[in-house]
Structure formats: structure tokens, C-alpha cells
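Below is a concrete protein record.
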Amino acid sequence: MITRAVRPAAAFLFFALGSSRLYSQNGNAELQRDYEIGERALSEHRYPDAERAYEKLEQLSPGTAEVYGRLGLVYFQERKFDKAVPALRQAMKLKPSLPNTDVLLAMCLAELGHYSEALPGLEKGFRKPMDSVLRRLSGLQLQRAYTGLHRDRQAMEVALELNKLYPKDPEVLYETSRIYANFAYLTLVKLKQVAPDSVWRHEAAGEAYESQGDYNLALTEYRQVLKLAPDRPGIHFRLGRALLRRGQKQNVDDTQQALKEFEQELEFDPTNANAAYEVAEIYRKSGQLDKAQTFFDQALKYYPDFEEARLGIAAVLLASGKPGGALPELQRASALNPNNEVTYYRLSQAYKALGNVADQEKALAAFRRLRAEKASRQDLLPPSEVTRQELDSEPARGARTVDGCKMVHRRHGAVFWERMGRGTDRLSIGMRRSARSRWRRGCQSTS
């Protein structure tokens, strides 16, 4: 649904419905005065006053298309769509060429759920490249109409076009993300229908359960994948990751089981940098620095731009008393991501150990700036498949944290909605239900 926040813009968009000097040519000063009262109230968003003025004019001048057009616009702004539709129809009957009236009528029809009837007007509005505001409003309604008509592929196409046209518009980003989540849900439903016992269905179910924090169910699904395809790459890694996350949630130590899974993954695929990184991180946190360095090196061999691995091997080198070796790793990590506070804190440690006070202070200043920016906002973490590097300790002026295993799963349809919250919409069953129930229906195995 288009939010109320955008509706005032629509009033200015549709001011082309008629001239502000509508009655001046026929010499009817009283009608012109009433019309100007309505115009002023509409421009100032005093919609009840505008409604009274135009309803009065409707009685005094029932043959004037612009009055019905304005009255339909006021009803639209007041969300009285059932009253806006007949007013706009009458405006079009009296003057078919009245600008944008058909598009406004289509938006009202869409709000009432009359999607088939609304489509021609919405498509027309969305294809007007010279009118950005009209195109945006029409596009938002058009993707809803396509979804309501179960024309999901076309809804996806409109969403992609909206993202291209308005890449920094928060409402567009929000509404299109709902379309993508719904499309992902429908795709998984189809996967369940066409291949209910396939490795892909079980793997998708495991990912869904993992995103919901149901790690035991996720482990069951991943193990079912291995029964069907023992050599399937990536599954031992997913098992290890689910074990680590379960251990965090239930306050139990699944680290050794996870380590075995990661090592098995590397037996199948030595190039799996994520698995090598997780092995290295487990060894680092247990104090086995030589083993940790070996596996960090393996991860970086196959993925040189692996930021977390750069930070991990730098931590090993710092703990081993080798700040000179840690420094280039941290500089590379900084180049890969200049907004990671952990990088700058470890840089400050390296510079301190090297006796470089000036650069140490610069790194600490960058760290504190990034920490303050992080505290002032509540951003979602970027998607990650691995344990993130965290601060082992902080400078005296910072809040002390404990090194941990913060795991974040790749955003994949419902994962995104689990973080963003549960939206509701009357358009389709996929968008009415919470992400949790959508993915359960799409992926959960039948008993």
C-alpha cells in the first residue's frame, strides 16, 4: 500500500486537472471565488475544507469536469476511495481529455482492490518518463496490482525498474523488498511441489530453519541432504555453522563438533575459504596460534580479499608478538572495508607495538569515530556466511566487550523479513503471513 506520507505530493502532481481561473471567463465571480477557496484549501492540505468547497460547486455547477476532478482528488487524499471513483468517472465523462484523471482513477481502483480495472491506467502512468512523481506513484500501485492478480513475474519486473529509477527512495526500497520476499516464497513453494524430496528442498529448509533460530531442525535437514548426496559441497560447512550458532543460543559447547564438520568440508573441498576460516578462528580462540595461522593462510590462498581472514591472521600475528607482520594484513583489510571498527582498533595495537604513536592515535581516532557512528544508528549487519571478527578488548575510553562468535546468515527471502519485522498486506497470501510461517510452508518437510 502507498503510505500516507506520499499523498501530499499527489495533490501537486494532479493540479493539472484544471485551470485556477476556471470560472473567470464566464463572468461568474461567485463560482470563481468558491473555486479559489477550494484550491487554496487543497494546496494547504486542508482536505475537509476543500471537500466542502468542491461539493458546493458540484451542486452549483454540475456540468464542470474540473470540479469533479478536484473532488475526486480530495477524496483520494482523504482515503475515501469509494467516493473518489464516481467523481473521477464523471470528470472523465464530461471531459475525457482532462489530464491525469485516468491515472488517479486507476490508483483509487487499485486501493479498492479492483486490480484488473486499474491496470491500464497504472501502466499508462508508469510509462510516463517525463513525469517522475506520477511514474513513482503509479509504479508502486502497479506492482501491488500485479501481485494481487498473481502476475508475480510482472510485479518483479516493475520492482526492478522502480529500484533502478529510484535507488535511494526509502518507500520504493521497502515496497520492492516485499515483492522480492514474496517471489522467493512462491519459488520455494514451487520447489516443494516439483521436488519435495530433493537435496535442494532439504537444503532450503535447513537455511530457513537456521534463519529462524531452529538449529536442531536445520541440522536435521542438512543431515538429510548428506544422506541423499554424501559428496554435496558446502553442507558440512553449513552443519558446522549451525552447530556454532546452536551453541551460542543454548549456551552449550558445540565447538568440537563444529570443528569436525568444517574439517570434513575441507577434505571434500580444500578451496572452501569459509570452512578454512572457521577452523582457523576456532584454533585462534583456543590459543593454538600456529594451527590458526595455517588455516587463515589457506583461506586467503583461495580468497585473497577475505576481510575477516585478514583480520584473523593479524590477530594471530599480534598475539605472537609480530606486529610488523600484522600491519600489512590490517592495511589490506582497511582497504577492503574502511568502515570496520575492529580493523582500526587492531591497527592501533600494531602501531603501539611498533612504537608509532602518531599513527596509533590516528587509528584510535578512526576507531572511536566508527564506534560512535555505530552507536548512533541501528543498521542491519551486512550479510555474512562466517563468524565475524570482534574486539578482544578496547581502549580505556571505550566500552569493553567480550570476543564472541557472532554469526549472521546470508539474507535470503524470509531471512530479511525476520530482521525487518513482519509486514502485513491484503494483496496475497504470501504477503499477508509472517516470514516465519511463509518459509515453514515453503520448506518444511511433510510428516
